[in-house]
Amino acid sequence: MTAVFALAGRTASEISAAVEAGVRSGALQAGDALPPIRAAAGQLGVSPATVAAAYQALRQRGIAEAAGRQGTRVRPRPAVAPARGQFRLEVPEGVLDLATGGPDPRLLPDVGPALARAAADAEPTGYAAEAYPPLRAAARRTLARDGVDAGELAVAGGALDAIERLLGAHVLPGDRVAIEDPGWANLLDLVAALGLRPVPVPVDESGPDPQRLADALRGGARAFVVTSRAHNPTGASVTARRAAELRAVLAGHPDVLVIEDDHAAELSVEALHPLAGATEAWGFVRSVSKPYGPDLRLAVVAGDATSIGRLTGRQRLGTGWVSRILQRVVTDLWSDPAVAGVVAAARSEYETRRIGLVNALRERGLTVTGRTGLNVWVSVPDETTAVARLREAGFAVAPGALYRIATPPAIRITISALDPDVVPALADAVARTTRTGAAAPGV
Question: Cis bond leading into 233, ω under 30°?
Answer without folding.
Answer: yes
